[in-house]
Structure formats: structure tokens, C-alpha cells
Design brief:
The chain is an alpha/beta fold. The chain is built from ten helices and twelve strands. Helix 4 packs across helix 9. It is globular and about 50 Å long.
């Protein structure tokens, strides 16, 4: 019987420091940087990490390598095989962080939820908050973890593709929320990826992910609830989109923290929508 149990999708630095060496706990560094940043997340993890943290590469390793778009969700068997190498089992309590505070870690939280693993949380404030609190860091080559035993059970309600989304765009019980910067949403700033059209989906609303954060931490749940109430009805199914499916997951986690229930991420996001000419853009 596991003694440690994650009860919230967000955990504090003090909670993690207290539980860091519990046998059920697996800590994952999910740092990722936008293309062209010239930073290497895996090298940075080797140089500085929370003790025992393993590096979760959702960009190249734990992704669908055959997909036309960046870091698409892999098949369940692929996901299970890769997380087992990181020492994750179905009984594991997983905490994910990134080196920017809150940026890419929610993507991995969403991936685990989509694969049927609910015992997963994001570290609020990430590595910067861990350091500010004066907690110990680890460096150099890590010790390889014992291989886990993970059973992935795909949860289709967490994921949507472009063709399915197109059919649901104008239905009143669905609201698409776009996490990109407002200038990109309104098409006044060009897309960073070449060949991607500017603008947004018909009937989508802009909710830039930065409006849900303060100093690398999520806003309190009441404030998050106000943000979502301003752009959607409480009973609507929320579908989250962004540039390539990373910051959309910040919105998904924030929506869960605010008490919303029907949450879905458009995995291809604007990289797919903006390059697929049968999809309408305004």
C-alpha cells in the first residue's frame, strides 16, 4: 500500500522537499525551449537538477516520430516503454517540473493524464522556486533508475485532432481557448514557424498563458476561475490550442485547478491548423 499520494495537480516546493525520497515518488525534468533558443534542455538537466530527477524528452523521444508536426503524442505502447526506462510504474507518484517556472512541465502532466495516469502533479514555480528556497541540487551523470512497470490506458477525452475539432468549432457546448500571445491570435504578429498562416480559428477566444501565471507560479484558484469565467461558460467543454501543443497544457492545468471538468488539448495546435488549408482562419 502506497503511503504517498498526490491529491492535487499542483504541488509546492515545500511538499516536494518533504517527500523527495519517498520510494513511490518519481521526479521528472520536462524542460524544453522554443526552436532557435540555442539552449539544450538535456544538457542543462545534466548540469543542474532536483536530486534524482530524470529527464523527460517529449520533443524527440516520447513523441510520435512519424508525425508531420512537432512533439505529437505517441502511441500508448511507445509512451509506456519510454516512461518505464525513466523508472515510472503505474503505482508511481509523478512530479514534473521545468527550468522556467511554469512552461513545459504541464505538457507532461497532460501526457500522463491522456495515458490514464492521474497520480501526476506539476511543481509550482519549477526549478527556480526550488533554488530560491535553498534546496539541494544534483549535477553530473545520474544513476540509472530501475525499470518501471507502466500500463498506459489511453483517455481519448483529453485529446482532439484537427478534423474532429473542425466539426465541433461552432457548437455552443464547446469553447476553443488559444494560449498564444494576443498579437499572434489577432494576426498582427507573424508566426515564428515558416509557412504557418497568421490569425485564429473561427469562434476561438484568446487567453494568453501568461495571464494565468505570476512570477513562474499559477495564480490562486479563485483568480483562475475568474479568468475562465470571462471567456467561457462553466458547463462548456474547453479545447486548448497554442503554437505546437505545449503552452495549451498550461491552460488545461489552470482550468483543472479552477474546477473545470471537460478539458481537451488540440495536440497539433496552430502549427497544424495554420498550415492545413482546409481549416478556416480569421
Amino acid at each position: 500500500m502506497s503511503l504517498l499520494k498526490i491529491t492535487s495537480p499542483l504541488v509546492s516546493v515545500s511538499w516536494l522537499a518533504e517527500n523527495l525520497f519517498q520510494p513511490e515518488l518519481v521526479v521528472l525534468d520536462a524542460s524544453w525551449f522554443l526552436p532557435g533558443s540555442e539552449r539544450n534542455a538535456e544538457n542543462e538537466w545534466l548540469a543542474k537538477r532536483i536530486p534524482s530527477a530524470r529527464y523527460f524528452d517529449f520533443d524527440t523521444k516520447i513523441a510520435d516520430s512519424a508525425a508531420s508536426f512537432p512533439h505529437m503524442l505517441p502511441e500508448p505502447a511507445h509512451f509506456a516503454r519510454e516512461v518505464e526506462k525513466l523508472g515510472v510504474s503505474s503505482s508511481s507518484q509523478v512530479v514534473v517540473y521545468d527550468s522556467q517556472g511554469i512552461f513545459s512541465a504541464p505538457r507532461v502532466w497532460w501526457m500522463f493524464r491522456a495515458m490514464g495516469h492521474d497520480d501526476v502533479a506539476v511543481l509550482d514555480g519549477g526549478l527556480p522556486a526550488w533554488e530560491v528556497a535553498g534546496n539541494r541540487l544534483e549535477t553530473g551523470e545520474p544513476v540509472s533508475p530501475a525499470v518501471g512497470d507502466f500500463n498506459a490506458q489511453y483517455q481519448s477525452q483529453w485529446v482532439i485532432d484537427g478534423d474532429t475539432l473542425l466539426k465541433q468549432l461552432n457548437t455552443p457546448d464547446v469553447q476553443v481557448l488559444d494560449a498564444r500571445a494576443a498579437a499572434r491570435f489577432y494576426g498582427t504578429q507573424p508566426e515564428p514557424r515558416q509557412g504557418v498562416r497568421s490569425g485564429h480559428m473561427p469562434s476561438a477566444k484568446s487567453l494568453p498563458f501568461g495571464q494565468l501565471l505570476k512570477d513562474g507560479h499559477f495564480l490562486p484558484a479563485e483568480q483562475l476561475q475568474q479568468r475562465f469565467d470571462a471567456v467561457s461558460d462553466a458547463e462548456q467543454r474547453l479545447i486548448f490550442s497554442c503554437g505546437s501543443g505545449v503552452t495549451a497544457c498550461i491552460l488545461a492545468l489552470a482550468a483543472e485547478l479552477s474546477g473545470r471538468k471537460q478539458l481537451t488539448v488540440y495536440d497539433g495546435s496552430w502549427t497544424e491548423w495554420g498550415t492545413t488549408y482546409k481549416y478556416p482562419v480569421v
